[in-house]
Amino acid sequence: MIFFQKVFAQVNFHITFATRSKERKFLNKIETTVRKTENQVRSMSSEQIVKHIRSGSSVG
């Protein structure tokens, strides 16, 4: 799950420096999507994750 921690760090960094509200809303959407994906991945077995990756579908 280190990947997600790196994504959150980057998103939070950008949110901190986002001056326009549109940018902030966009980045908040990204963060929400990443959190949902992280939760779904945590609840999946490794076999399910591999199937998702092989089928080319996004998680969710």
- Give the number of DSSP strands: 0
Please summarize the sheet with the most strands.
none
| Contiguous uncertain segments of 5+ residues | none
Radius of gyration: 14 Å
Structural class: mainly alpha
Helix content: over 70%
What proportion strand?
Answer: under 5%
Average per-residue pLDDT, rounded, comes to 77
Shape: elongated
Can you describe this structure?
The protein has 60 residues and is an all-alpha fold. It has one domain. The protein is built from three helices and no strands. Helix 1 packs antiparallel against helix 2. The chain is elongated. The two termini are 17 Å apart.
How is the topology of this model organized?
Blueprint: H1 2-17, H2 21-43, H3 46-55
Outline:
With 60 residues, this protein is mainly alpha-helical. Helices cover 82% and strands 0% of the residues. The chain has one domain (2-55).
Key phrases:
0% strand, mainly alpha, 82% helix, 60 residues, single chain
